[in-house]
Each structure stands twice: as C-alpha cells, then as structure tokens.
Design brief:
By secondary structure, the chain is mainly alpha-helical. The protein has 2 domains: 62 residues, no CATH class; 216 residues, Cytochrome p450. The chain has a two-stranded antiparallel ribbon with strand order 1-2. Helix 5 packs antiparallel against helix 7 and helix 9 packs across helix 11. It starts with 17 loop residues before the first helix and ends in an 8-residue tail after the last helix.
Length: 293
C-alpha cells in the first residue's frame, strides 16, 4: 500500500479512487487499525469492523431509509420512487418480502438444478480442449443468466442486454459516493429495465407460465396489494439481485481460490467443503462491499 497523506480523511479508502477499487483490502485493513468508526468527507459515517457492522445491522434500530422515510438517491429511480423490497423498511418491507417469498415456486427451482448442471457441463466442455477460459464470459455470465431467466420467465435471448443494464443499475446502490456520471448511467439503466419489464409484463398477461413473473402477475390481478409500479420494481430488483451478484461471486471466488492454492487443493480433495468455501469467498471478497443504513 502506498504512503497515505496525513490530510487524507478517507484514509486511502476512497471508493472513487481506482487504486482502492482495484484492491480495497489493504486500505480497509489500515482503516480498521487507525479509525474503524469514522465520518467520511462525503458526510456519512462508516463502520468497517465485523462486530460493529453486525451490531448495526441486527441490534440497532436503523433502516435503509432516512428518518423522514426517504431512500437515499430515490430520485434516481423510475418515477422518482424506489419500490423494490430491499429499498423499504417495515411494514412495507415485510409486506413485500412475504408477498415475493410466497411466489417463489419450489418446483421450478428443483427443475432448474439439473438443467443448470447440464448447462455448466456444456460450458466447461467447450473450453476444456483449450486448457483455459475467461471465467466471466465463459462461465460467470451465462450460468446465472440461464438461472434467472428460467426462474423469472425472462427470455434467455435478452441476456446480453440485461447484463449491461443490471451492471449499470447496481451503481445506484452507492449513488451517494460514486462519480455523478456513474450514478447517471445507473439511473438511465434503471429506466430501461423499467420499460423492458413493462413490455414483458404486458406480453405475459396474455400467456401466463410457471415462473416468478407469472406468479406475481396472477397475485397482482387478484388484487393482493401490489401496485403496477411495485410489480415492475420487484421484477427489476429480483433480476439484479439474482444475476449481478452471482456473476461477481463466481468471478471473485475463482480468483480467491487461484490466489490461495492451498485452499483450492483442500477443496479439490474434499468437495463436501463447497458450502463453507462459498461462505468464505463471500466474506473475503463479496460482490457487494458496502450496505447503507
């Protein structure tokens, strides 16, 4: 890590700094050592110790919205409203969470397991002869693309387009710290996703299927307290949450294992460790590095 200036009140951990974004870990380690609870130049407080974060998230009465009920950067979302369940506090969050959970069809998820296994085997077979692969293009993008398309009823042919939209919309998770052009790109992508799902929902109403989108439409048409804009927001949010984060987990996880060959060898010798290996990959280099309260 380069020497830090005594006037750097970000302590080197500035999310706009490309050096920090390329490898945040040494800067975050330094931050935990010198000022683990600090007010940033952007005006918000930052916690970077595990126990502090757990206490804030589980035992302190905080929310994702401000005291007056506003979601940070809410105006960046279509219609100026952030309506996905992860952008809500109780009781709205509770209502939407129960609503969505009840419409995740277990039978569709079980059917998907074997299909994903076959698809992954095909992807590996394609590159096996070359002895190398682009982990993102050859695996991390196509596998979760198929999974989320099958579960939600989104056309697989549209995956390349929504991959761009979801990546850009994710910038809104931290719109308060990103450069204005990144936040604006995220806003534009959110609008495009909103229009995309509006058209997809209109088409699906004429021919419902066995997928999450169809189940949400059935519930909305039955009058189960879901507005048309809330319906689109849940679809958009589920697509982003189920796709973009999985791409990051696979890419970061493979990099972590290749960077720690002893742990890779341990996993290869005992594949039953895969569940704990995934948890450790999420801990050490997860696809989402911050959450706001």
């Amino acid at each position: 890590m380069s020497e830090l200036s005594s006037t750097d009140t970000w302590y080197g951990a500035n999310p706009l700094d490309e050096v920090f974004r390329d490898n945040p870990h040494p800067f975050l380690k330094h931050l935990r050592e010198v000022d683990p609870v600090n007010e940033t130049p952007a005006g918000f407080w930052r916690l970077c110790r595990y126990d502090d974060c757990i206490r804030l998230l589980t035992r302190v009465p905080t929310g994702v919205r401000t005291a007056d009920g506003v979601f940070p950067a809410e105006g960046m979302f279509p219609g100026g409203r952030a309506e996905f369940l992860l952008q809500q506090d109780p009781p709205s969050h509770t209502r939407l969470l129960i609503f969505v959970r009840m419409r995740l069809p277990p039978r569709a998820i079980e059917r998907l397991r074997s299909k994903l296994r076959e698809f992954t085997d095909e992807l590996i077979d394609r590159v096996a002869a070359d002895g190398e692969m682009d982990i993102i293009a050859d695996l991390a993008l196509p596998v979760p693309s198929l999974a989320i398309c099958e579960m939600m009823g989104v056309p697989f042919a549209d995956r390349e387009q929504f991959a761009v939209w979801t990546a850009d919309t994710t910038q809104l998770l931290a719109a308060l710290v990103w450069a204005p052009e990144l936040a604006e790109r995220g806003r534009a992508a959110a609008e495009q996703l909103h229009e995309y799902f509006g058209g997809l929902i209109a088409a699906r109403r004429r021919r419902l299927g066995d997928d999450i989108l169809s189940e949400l439409i059935r519930a909305e048409e039955a009058g189960e307290r879901l507005t048309p804009t809330e319906l689109i927001a849940q679809c958009r949010g589920l697509l982003i949450a189920g796709f973009e984060t999985t791409v990051g987990l696979i890419g970061n996880g493979v990099l972590a294992l290749l960077s720690n060959p002893d742990q890779l060898a341990l996993l290869q010798a005992n594949p039953d460790l895969i569940a704990s290996a995934i948890e450790e990959c999420l801990r050490i280099d997860g696809p989402i590095v911050l959450t706001q309260r």
